[in-house]
Design goal:
46% of the residues lie in helices and 9% in strands. The protein has ten helices and six strands, in the order E-H-H-H-H-H-E-H-E-H-E-H-E-H-E-H. It has helices spanning 17-30, 39-45, 50-61, 67-85, 93-102, 115-125, 148-157, 171-180, 195-199, 211-224; strands at 4-7, 106-110, 133-135, 164-168, 183-186, 203-204. The two termini are 26 Å apart.
Amino acid sequence: MIQAVIFDMDGVLLDTEALELRCSNEALAAMGLPLSLSREAYAETCSMSSADYRLRLRQNLGEDFDFDCFQRRVSGLMADDLSKNGVPMKNGVVETLSALRANRIKTAVATSTASEKTLRYLDELGIRRLFDVVCCGDMVARNKPDPDIYEAAAKALGLPTADCVAVEDSRNGVLSAVSAGCATVMAPDLLQPDGRLSAMCVCVTDRLTNLPDIIARVNQEKLNHRGPAGAPHIIKESQNCETQQT
């Protein structure tokens, strides 16, 4: 049965992906590069490690692309915006976390973002106390789309991944969570999933506050659809959860 929810951070808890995309394009323009990243191109890199992101940009922009300069410019632009406007949090985060914990569901963060930045963001928003575990990209050998970070978060929670729901907004994140064995809910941010990605998830939703009801449905399906050896089986549904709301 589901006993925990493991959240991605950027794009799920925090509304930072669109900000980073804007800052990335401003940085490219400042470097005199005519190419700008589309939402689709940027979404493909979400949750990648810095090394993989460097490789992807150099494939697109050439081997002489100064990735370190680019990263410094993006970080500076984001820091300026965050200092003026604060860290943007997604709607319903505190309400959802409070409801889960009231129902004795453990909560964790599994993010590709480094520890220092992750903890600073969570502390600034005052929500770090609402998580039992925080697992960051610099704590695992391989980052998303590999399963390491979800496996590490579940282990820190003292649970098998099969007893955890993962909440992700990106393709790389969904692949990571699914390959780890988590029941995965997609909460799209920059892009909506295609049919193949939706089929990997137990649910697609645009409201985090749906999570308690989603967990109840997943648990009911686990009870109703057990395999011959007694192992729970989750029916994968490609439909958006909101089609079931009244």
